[in-house]
Specification:
Layout lengths: L2 H10 L5 H10 L7 E2 L9 E2 L23 H9 L4 H18 L4 E2 L7 E2 L2 E2 L1 H17 L9 E5 L3 H13 L2 E5 L7 E4 L5 H5 L6 E3 L10 H4 L1 H4 L4 E4 L6 H12 L1
Parallel strand pairs: 3-6, 6-7, 8-10, 9-10
Antiparallel strand pairs: 1-2, 4-5
Helix pairs in contact: 1-4, 1-5, 2-4, 4-5
Length: 251
């Protein structure tokens, strides 16, 4: 089932509650990566890709504290597949449910990235762009300006055109592990003043983690504050060891 057909199906079930629409759309397809709507931190739809296969070799966290390799995230990423169609379909389902109920963007690949076996997955990127265009054309309710957001551990010089192309259709991608604009960094919030000495870029601690926002859906910094670097306190089942390792490295 393509994006146009999913849009038509979503409209036919527009009267259903969010969970009902989600079930109907998922039941209509055979190839789809996990897409969830229940994460209390996010408060929005989220998709998953397999860790390792879809991650760049430059990621410092693979097998080294990656939060996606533990807990429920690990369960979802193990069920996912390195398949552009499966990943894009998950995004489309998330976007449609969000369009009818929350008007929030989809969190792309909570696990994984936009790579395949060490190279940029151009088929996936092109599939996402086409899906965004089709959603704008065929979805029968208003869509938010930003359809999705996510992060990449890839390097800017090979991803600049990809990030720009996704931005043009409503997908915001931030660079991970950098202290620059439009980036994110993992660092203990208790030590953030030390981090500020290393950059002139405005640093914004994750507002959900510090209790200033209830969910990502109500925060919006990650897809709106393009001039800032969002700092995440280490999280996941290996957070304690990660926090200790980061602090010791700086010391």
């Amino acid at each position: 089932m393509n994006t146009k057909e999913l849009c038509e199906l979503a409209n036919s079930y527009a009267h259903l509650k969010q969970s009902g629409l989600e079930r109907k759309l998922k039941a209509s397809i055979t190839v789809c990566n996990p897409v969830g709507f229940g994460n209390s931190k996010l408060g929005i739809a989220s998709t998953y890709r397999p860790i390792g296969k879809t991650c760049p070799t430059t990621c410092p966290w693979f097998d080294n504290g990656c939060y996606g390799q533990g807990g429920k995230c690990n369960m979802h990423q193990r069920r996912s597949q390195d398949c552009p169609k499966a990943s894009t379909t998950a995004f489309v389902i998330g976007a449609l449910v969000s369009a009818y109920h929350t008007q929030a963007p989809v969190r792309l690949h909570v696990t994984g990235d936009i790579y395949s076996n060490g190279k940029i997955d151009t088929v996936y990127v092109e599939s996402l762009i086409q899906a965004c265009n089709d959603l704008r054309q065929y979805c029968q309710v208003p869509l938010p300006t930003v359809l999705a957001y996510g992060y990449t551990a890839g390097v800017e010089n090979e991803l600049e055109s990809v990030v720009a192309s996704l931005h043009a259709v409503g997908i915001r991608i931030r660079y991970s592990n950098r202290l620059d604009a439009n980036s994110t960094y993992v660092y203990p919030h208790s030590e953030i003043d030390e981090l500020r000495k290393q950059t002139t870029t405005p640093l914004v601690p994750c507002l959900v983690q510090v209790g200033k926002r209830e969910t990502c859906a109500t925060c919006k910094v990650c897809w709106q504050a393009s001039k800032a670097c969002v700092v995440f306190d280490p999280h996941g089942i290996k957070a304690k060891s990660m926090r200790k390792r980061i602090v010791n490295k700086v010391a």
